[in-house]
Amino acid sequence: MLSLPIRSPAGDVTAVHAYDVAVTDTLKSYPTLNFSFIANEDNEVAEKMIAPRTIITDPTTGQQYRIATSNPVPTNKYRVYAVTTIHIAHDLHDLYLDNTITGSQSLKACCDFLVSGSKFSYSIDGNISDHDFGSDTLGNAHGDDVLSSIAEAFGIEFWFDNTTIHLATKIGKDNSFVFIDKVNASKIQVNEDYTTIETAIKGTGKEIEQDNTGGDSGGGSGAVASFARQYAGTPYVWGGSSPSGWDCSGFVAYVYNHFGIPMHQPTTYEEYQGQVVGPPYQEGDMLFWGARGSTYHVALALDSNTLEMAANPERGTVIQAINAWPPAFGVRNAQMAAKVQGSSDSDDSSTTDTTDQPPQYTCQGEYDSPMAADDKWGKIWADPFTSDTITDENALKDAMKAQLHDYPDVQYTMDWVSFKSNLSGINNEIAIGNNGWLRDRFGIDVNVRIQSFTQYKDPTTTQTDTITFGNKIFGPDEWSNRNDATRTAIHSGNGNSGSKSHEINPPVTADDIPTNGLQLRSPNGKVYTLTAGNDGKLKLSTEEGKDTNGDKGQTTHS
Question: Where is the stretch described as Disordered (predicted)?
């Protein structure tokens, strides 16, 4: 039994004598506290206080929970209650934020927006970069949904100390536990889920605003120049033809195509797409350098005095006076001239209504995982990725790569012998997000992170504490090595599949695994060794022989 303080909305306080008191904490979620009690004479007052908004306090941590559900079941003499509560931080759902914020925001500004005028406060651990919401907005939602949106936007995690929200890029401590099957843990299980794999993805960056005035009035005086000016500063890329990078003819072709006038590189093609003209030039004219038939550079006239061009890798796309570098000649395209003047030749059936054009993007692309090869897993397409802030192809590729789930979900679960006793002298610090080591009964070491745990608080319970470790991400090399090993096994024995006999050995038992001298190797190659001290306790030490229990900021493991 465990006595849990209980407080009614009116402020009345008593205690409920409960059993099977279990706290479940899960990363990026709200902790819950579940318990049962018998509605006998000892719990007569407590039973009457089981009602909406009643608060239960965990006496071991001081964390508060609100009653969410109550299920009384009649028995021969008394009712038996099964009660579920949720952490007080879920009161964020009581808030509704009518206003919204958008554009580039700091994490602090978003948190201030979330907690303003409420009982909540927050603490930010570390420096976290601003986030540009683009055309998306934050708000117009319940507080808990706003918090989830903030966490997703900034790529952060959170945990609660009653009504204080703690935010960090990653919560938890490293090397905070060691669990060895049949020593201080039991039933270490692994589950590999292959149904969530994706190996290929397409994506688009920020959409380009298109002129939708259409057919006869497409363009209009100033519209072409206005559209082109927004790309000043775009990088120069030889052979490029998009706002992520273009050369001189790619830039001019991009502007023309935007207004529904077919155009493509190189300059020696573009110089024949109209009538040769001299100054004064007008908006939309193409300006060329070099003799006709062998031009080497092209620019776009914004008006009679100004041009825009993709100059070179050092300058990029620039706007300058025409007389600063006079062109050899100009070419006036009839369709472009008609759009600039606000009317088009009605006999020209090639004039395009831009309202029918498909959307255009500053960048777009595709990313294939190494596992998308035909002799691996093949292409398994993910949902397309879109962004209204990315304008660079490399940034888009990085975003698509991060979005792709090109690995199975590998999850470890185990029963924990005891939260209270230091079995075999191994002290473990258990908290959501903490990182540590598992060694299973086959002697395999795995570095894992706590995703969720259920802890039974009352010492007399017969229930078993459990820990679930977050999905272990094995990179493509791991699965590629597995494929290679499979093919080697299949083709061994002179290439006759199934012809090779295999000796079957019984599984390793607990008695076969020594606990003194066990070595654990971290991903960076550092080796940790478990050794028995004179006091009979096991200690975790580094390869250099330094006990990790020192006063140098290292996590205690012994």
Answer: 336-368, 478-558
Q: Are 298 and 287 in contact (CB under 8 A)?
A: yes
Closest CA to 202 of 365, 19, 397: 365
Tokens linked to 226: 């206005």
Which of 208, 211, 228, 229 minimizes the C-alpha distance to 220? 211
Among 19-28, 182-191, 400-409, 541-550, the minimum mean pLDDT is found in 541-550
List pLDDT tens digits, range 273-282: 999 999 999 9
Decide: helix, strand or coil at residue 299.
Answer: strand
Please state, in angstroms and rounded to a whole number, the distance separating the CA atoms of residues 91 and 71: 22
Which pLDDT does position 215 carry in this prediction? 38
Instruction: Extract the tokens encoding 106.
Output: 């700091």
CB within 8 Å of 474: residues ≥ 6 apart = 407, 408, 410
Furthest-apart CA atoms within the chain: distance in Å: 106
How far is Cα 380 from Cα 368, in angstroms, rounded to an integer? 9
359, 207 Cβ separation under 8 angstroms? yes
Element (H, E) at 403: helix 393-403
Q: Are 188 and 181 in contact (CB under 8 A)?
A: yes
Phi-psi region of 257 (alpha: psi -120 to 50; beta: other; left: phi over 0): alpha
The identity of residue 14, as a single letter, is: T
